[in-house]
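Fold it.
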Amino acid sequence: RPVVASEESFETAEIAGGEIPRPSAHELWLLKLIFKQDTALEWLVAHLDTRWIVHPTIREVVGRRMQLHQGGEWHSLGLFLDQFDSAETRGLITEAAAEERQIPNIEQQFADVVLRIRNQFFDRQLAELTQQLSQPALDEEGKVTLLRQQQELRLLKRQPLAPLSPGP
């Protein structure tokens, strides 16, 4: 059974010169979905922040696919594959695009997967804040700030997915 990726495992694999770990099931599913239906990509562009994606290869591929869609520059899977030098990256894309089974209610699948990826991102941030709170040198003002950030993240996590606000 393949090892599922975490941010720390990428650094370890790269330092050791090893193979990059497999993406999580949700991130792999997102990769499969982006090659299934172009019309759902418009929703994805509006709702997915690629910073939520842990796996660097998945983040790069999904980001590039969304960018090509937005710019009206998507032409074919073959041309897309040619943009990547890494055999591992091309292999992941090919594996994802080769998914032959029909996916019912693909728009809902996108929404569910993106919501899970977003919430996992919030969970990682909450864990980091909890770790910071356990530092003995943290003063009272710092604790209050971190607790407030935790509360805000918990509120955000309970919110339904909404379109991302446009940048400046």
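The radius of gyration is 18 Å.
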